[in-house]
Structures are given as structure tokens and as C-alpha cells.
């Protein structure tokens, strides 16, 4: 159980939180220097980066690139709900 929990933490950091949290925290720190949200962002970025290093996965960048809002044909993409018709 311990090994599986550690594996799940690595996967979660590698595929999700570790990819965007350092950049998000750094952005908060840049936008609110000396403020509460800036301090919280810096702390969050440092914590997630340290956790990534601890489990051996790369942390995401300090600057996030935005992707295109065009979802294409991605079935799991966020967008307007389209009701199915039964014609």
C-alpha cells in the first residue's frame, strides 16, 4: 500500500500539479509582490518544486505558456455542452 501511494503521488506531481503549480505560484508572486497572495504563491511554488525534487520528477517552468482555446475534436475538452439529438 505504501509503494502504491508513493507511485500515485509521483504520477500526480508529474502529470498534474507539478506541471502547472510552480508557474502559477510564480505568477502570483510576480503580480502581488509583498502581498498575501504573492507570498502564498511563492510558498506554493517552492513547496511543489521541493516535492517534485523529493520524489524525482521534474517540476514545471516558472512561466506557463497558454495553449490555444481552439479545442479541435478533443472529446474531453472544456467547452459548451451540446445536447445529443435522436433523429
Outline of the structure:
Helices cover 57% and strands 0% of the residues.
Which descriptors apply to this entry?
87 residues
Q: Give the overall average pLDDT.
A: 84
Number of strands: 0
Low-confidence stretches: none
Q: Given the C-alpha coordinates, what overall shape results?
A: flat
Summarize the helix and strand pattern as letters: HH
Query: Which percent range fits the helix content?
Result: 55-70%
Rg computed from alpha carbons, rounded to a whole number of angstroms: 18 Å
Q: Quote the beta fraction.
A: under 5%
Structural class: mainly alpha
Question: How far from one another are the termini?
Answer: 50 Å
Largest sheet: none
Number of helices: 2
Topology:
Layout: H1 2-31, H2 36-55
Helix pairs in contact: 1-2
Provide a descriptive summary of the structure in words.
By secondary structure, the chain is an all-alpha fold. The protein has a domain at 17-61. Helix content is 57%, strand content 0%. It has two helices and no strands. It is flat, with a radius of gyration of 18 Å. It starts with a helix and ends in a 32-residue tail after the last helix.
Amino acid at each position: 500500500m505504501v509503494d502504491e501511494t508513493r507511485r500515485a503521488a509521483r504520477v500526480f506531481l508529474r502529470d498534474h500539479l507539478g506541471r502547472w503549480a510552480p508557474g502559477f505560484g510564480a505568477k502570483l508572486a510576480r503580480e502581488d509582490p509583498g502581498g498575501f497572495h504573492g507570498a502564498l504563491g511563492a510558498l506554493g511554488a517552492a513547496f511543489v518544486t521541493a516535492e517534485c525534487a523529493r520524489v524525482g520528477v521534474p517540476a514545471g517552468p516558472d512561466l506557463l505558456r497558454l495553449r490555444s482555446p481552439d479545442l479541435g475534436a478533443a472529446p474531453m475538452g472544456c467547452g459548451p455542452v451540446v445536447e445529443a439529438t435522436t433523429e
